């Protein structure tokens, strides 16, 4: 009887517990959420001994309850237990502990809502339904984009987006959305978030910008964005399809992944035309990720700002190649520190032909090159000053000068005709190099300018270009026939050495398309002003800026005399001394230019005249 009770109790004990569970197959890793740090269920019940008899059960229970945490996996006691236990039991205490823990992981991409079909009529065709939904969405987007959103509507939309993301709305962002109050009367709808810390608020802001709010200009300068924030905002700009100007300057936490997303945006967003990524450090890989989509058919980017950036040596070659292959028209590279390799790559920005054609172009240059004498140099001392100030310029001298100019122009056109046989690469129209320490070592840049066929605007302000550098640029302009605007402001190239000014007046007298020359803050003296005044009757200039230079009374008189013989100049800007004679000449210059602008109602240079230093000086006459 006692043996039967003991057997029954042993069978009950063995039946009351289950054998250790087998390890389950692990789920594949989730794409949206990492595995939880710990389980959310209670540990399972202690493992039961196998059904192999009373002795094995006793040994198994003793190992599980007493010795499992302290007995090493290779001990003698563990070997004895394994001999009496089943083969499918846990081999070590670590395996037993791992099998005792349970974990559950819900993958969000597997969750779905199921909606019951409810309707009195049969569903229509899938294509018709899709067309109807897309048409309704398009009409709604046009209706929302046609009107200007109010600040209250934008703030309400932003709060809804924050609530959906379970985030607290950012008060600086809410205050910035009040800029929409000016949208009703503005041509462009602008949202300026410059200087705001958007590290934790970029995702709900991107959700808001994805709506058809009609934003045209989006400023995200100095917002401490990282790759994730830039990715979210780039997707929002693509979804909105209205932003044509995007600024991402001074966000140092953006790296290759973020720039790759911006490059993808450029390749797929036909509405984006202007991009500012200034004040960044670009490696060759980062710049390649940004600029590689430039050759995509959908890329319509027109202007790019890369101001005050630090570019690696290989990044300059990437930029030059992208300019030649892409459709960008305006490039700003202000305030860069150039090394020897960067100077050569900078000249490569203007190379609009294949590198293999350089030898042929050099041969054409030697054929078309001519020794250009000074068109305005006479043997008699001070003859030019006398001619301009007293009107004794001989008709025969002017006729001979025109013949020499025609000969030089014919040589330049022959050179350009030879270049036209080469395929043209790139569409660069504007190159802004203001703030580069170029100095007079600009031979490569001058050579590229002489051979270029696309550039219209070249800005070389504050580049420390001296008289020698100006002379090289002037020689390049003798063969370039496409440049329209040349900015040489704030360079010590106007004096006291007149080598550059004498070369510039030859280029101005023979260049057929040069319209604007900015020459302020260049140390130009009265002698330099007289030299430039000599070429005014032959130029096609519309705007000549000589402000902030000490021209003196003689220089003003020479410019006034040359202006009277010019038929194209609409704005001549000069700085004037306070004496009566200088003010009288300044008023004559201003009235002459204003009369020309009034005669030509379509002249766009009237606004330059009204904003000039000369206009301010003339307006101050008669004031107490």
UniProtKB/TrEMBL annotation:
Pfam families: LRR_6 (PF13516). Keywords: GTPase activation, Leucine-rich repeat, Repeat. Transmembrane segments: none annotated. Residues 33-52 have a biased composition (Low complexity). GO terms for cellular component: cytosol; nucleus; perinuclear region of cytoplasm. It comes from the Eukaryota. GO terms for biological process: nucleocytoplasmic transport. Residues 1-52 are annotated as: Disordered. One of its GO terms (molecular function) is GTPase activator activity. This is Protein NLRC3. It comes from Malassezia caprae.
